[in-house]
Structures are given as C-alpha cells and as structure tokens.
Design a protein that fits this description.
The protein is mainly alpha-helical. The chain contains four helices and no strands.
Length: 113
C-alpha cells in the first residue's frame, strides 16, 4: 500500500512541477514565501521534489544488497537532493534553477508596478 501511495503522490507532484516548469501552470508565481520580501518558487520546486519522491519510492522497494554501492549512493543523493530542493523552494531558489519565463514574467511585473 505504501509503495502505491508513494508512486501516485510522486507522479502527481512530478506532473505539477513539470507543468509549472514549462509555464503551463502559472498561478503559483506570486506566492509570497515563508520569509518576508523573498520570493518563493514552490511550483518549480515540485519538479525536483517529485523526482526525489519517485526515486525514494523506487528505492523503498529495491534490495540494497543487489545494487552496486555507487549506484545506491547516486540514487540516495538524487532522492535527498530533490526533496531538499523542494523544501528550500518554499523559501527561495537561486536564479539558475528558474526557467526563463519566470524571470521574464517577474521583470514585466516590476516594470508595470
């Protein structure tokens, strides 16, 4: 049951993040974030969180003894990095992780204000 639920949750999160990253879902763009005067990007962070959750769900059902140690290490880093990036995106994300359309939308919003 846990594997199926994790798989469904991670695929939903991955789909929402992909839609946000490609610009098809833009309603999250004005999200204020957890810190005042710092922009948060939870929509883009969902892509990385979905990757981390999907990797974690697949690792949950895998046998670590049958995997090579470097592969297991790489998958664990991918899982933890994706989840950590999602959590950080609730507060802030560096500019190099943002798609170009986000920067353009923020510039036009600043010019209109």
């Amino acid at each position: 049951m846990g594997f199926i639920l994790g798989l469904i949750l991670s695929l939903v999160m991955l789909t929402m993040g992909w839609r946000a990253h490609t610009g098809r879902w833009r309603s999250w763009l004005g999200h204020p974030g957890l810190l005042p005067r710092v922009r948060a990007y939870p929509g883009v962070g969902m892509l990385y969180g979905g990757i981390g959750l999907l990797t974690g769900t697949l690792l949950w059902d895998a046998d670590p003894d049958s995997m090579a140690k470097p592969l297991l290490g790489l998958l664990l880093v991918l899982m933890l990095g994706g989840i950590w990036t999602f959590l950080v995106s609730l507060v802030w994300l560096p500019k190099f992780m943002l798609p170009g359309w986000v920067r353009v939308a923020e510039r036009t919003k600043e010019r209109q204000a």
